[in-house]
Amino acid sequence: MRDNSVKNEISQVYFELLDQQKFSPDEMDYAVFEQKKPVLQNLATIGNSGVSVFDINKKDHIFYSPNFGILLGYDLSEIEKLGHTYLDEKIHPEDFIALMQNGISVLKLFFQFSEDEKLNYKLINEYRILNAENQYIRIIEQHQGLALSKTGKIWLNLSIIDISPNQDVSQGLKAQLLNFRTGKTLPFLPEGSLNKNAGAGLSGREIQILQMIREGLLSKEISDELNISLHTVNTHRQRILEKLGANNSIEAIVFASRMGLL
């Protein structure tokens, strides 16, 4: 019961975050999506992968490849009828909560990215899900932006699902955020493996500056806003990375978000 309560609460937070993006009818060109469908189908056929597209405006999937249900042995018509909730209920409860936590962190990051950056990243999740025999198996799911709205909002999200070569179902979620232009990755650590004491060591000023970084402000803009020197801002930024054990600002924002500091 507790797991269901937590799942419902974190799902609500996730979809409320999606709702922060307000779309107008004229900024989404669904004709563009129709043109992409044959490519998506070819992608599923060639890779023997399950392919789907989530419409953030409609808050539901608008495309499933015909082979989508085959990987898990499910009836595609049931998946299409019930939408994302059908598979959500099959995900291991612990992994589902971690997936939602990561999803919230990634959305917050993407809301601050430039239009180009939003299409440069891929979120790779490996997690446990029940198959048609009611047994947990591990799958790898890759998410990336498929299309932005005309005003640069995240609109369509592409998902590609494959069976993982790692079938150790004693392991929980493994996730990383990959910039496929640069090859750099950002790992998402399992809940509980983060150094909570490190987060508690952030000063009020450091949390304030990290919040401003998340909002997209540059060091010079933070300096002007807080009426402190640029050197002081950069010193705070370096100390934030050291205290959180982060390699860069994106990692710091993710770690601080997971700790409930932002």
Structure description:
The protein starts with a helix and ends with a helix. A hairpin with a 5-residue loop joins strand 6 and strand 7 (185-188). The chain has helices at 2-18, 30-47, 76-82, 84-88, 93-112, 115-118, 196-200, 204-214, 219-226, 230-244, 249-258, and strands spanning 50-55, 60-64, 121-130, 136-148, 154-163, 174-179, 185-188. Helix 1 (2-18) packs parallel to helix 5, helix 8 (204-214) crosses helix 10 and helix 10 (230-244) packs across helix 11. The radius of gyration is 20 Å and the shape is globular. The chain has two domains: 2-188, PAS domain (Beta-Lactamase, 2-Layer Sandwich), CATH 3.30.450; 196-258, Arc Repressor Mutant, subunit A (Orthogonal Bundle). 46% of the residues lie in helices and 21% in strands. It is α+β, with helices and mostly antiparallel strands. The chain has a seven-stranded antiparallel sheet, sandwiched between helices. Mean pLDDT is 86; it is low at 191-197. It has eleven helices and seven strands.
What does the secondary structure layout of this molecule look like, with pairings?
Blueprint: H1 2-18, H2 30-47, E1 50-55, E2 60-64, H3 76-82, H4 84-88, H5 93-112, H6 115-118, E3 121-130, E4 136-148, E5 154-163, E6 174-179, E7 185-188, H7 196-200, H8 204-214, H9 219-226, H10 230-244, H11 249-258
Helix pairs in contact: 1-5, 5-11, 8-10, 8-11, 9-10, 10-11
